[in-house]
Design a protein that fits this description.
This protein is mostly beta strands. 6% of the residues lie in helices and 44% in strands. The strands form six sheets. Strands 3-2-1-24 form a four-stranded antiparallel beta sheet, with no helix packed on it. A four-stranded antiparallel beta sheet has the order 4-5-6-7, with no helix packed on it. The chain has a four-stranded antiparallel beta sheet with strand order 8-9-10-11, with no helix packed on it. InterPro entries: DUF1668_ORYSA.
Amino acid sequence: MGCQKLSRKCLHLVTEYQGRGLYSLSRMGISSLFYPSTAAAEAAEVEYKEDVVRNLIDVFALLGKSNILCSNKCGYTSIYDTQEHAFIAMPDQNSPKGPRCIATYIARTAAHARSDFELSPKVDYNVFDRKPIGERNDSLHLMHMDQDNPCSFEVLACYPVGNWGWRELPAPPFFGDPDYKAPGNVAFAVVDGMGICVSSATATYLFDTVDMEWRKTGDWVLPFHAKAEYIPELRLWIGRSASRPNDLCALDLSPAFGGSGDVPLPMVQHIGMDVDLPEEWSLRDRTLVNLGSGRLCIVSFFFHIANDAQQVVVFTGVRVVPCGNNNQQGERGHLRLIKHKSKCLITDSIRYVL
């Protein structure tokens, strides 16, 4: 595993200027978090340059590896192509989602193509009316967790003759609960490449992007803070622990997609990050980015209390591996975290890392 190349070459940084809502999309190389390099190359890794500036954007989401969706408070949407350094105009959303929405990238598969014809007569919410032309198989699902949103769940996908469009999807079942309140933290994950697992305050549900239907997975809640990332090398989902701020946790969600409901709560394994903070640093937030090939980047946002609460952003390259030769799934204490290198930026402008 140590010789495998990273699936991604950079992180995408969303930085904000002093004017509120004025953003820049930038890149930061990540190879030096894992591989030896010269001092000059390491210095270049932590530099980032302005690509483009947009105004009044409040939703950013990664579409594939190199495209970034930008959407504002009115639902106006565009995609920034980081390779061509250009914006592509997109249709407007059916209703704006806001910064509290969750975004999941789903690649179109042969199963989606079959569902166009097999399910369209009986399913009202069909993403692709016909098989699209070309190789555009990207789709991005946005879900706002406020049940008062007139169109809380929709998908951006490419339709015939190369046209992109938004399609409304059925709202999650827990929106029908009169006691439901939009949570501050939404735990979610993509399962089997075609299902979206989302937890309410009391249960977990799965949306099948092929059948376009929701079903209840179980009366338990995903233990993650925000999104969990699937690591194929471990056959496990890993994310930040919702109950332990300095921990990662892992579990096997594969039964959730194939099950018919009432799936038992998977056994959770906690993986300590062993973070020793300087006394003058206060942790504000963390983001977990999947880099591929079994590697992750933990992005930690700190306040430097001794320096007028200046923000410090630390990028740490890590791998989660089985302890010894034991690779059994579903057992506690059989995973460990391997830390590689860290890079530190002192800046108040970074808002998101994708």
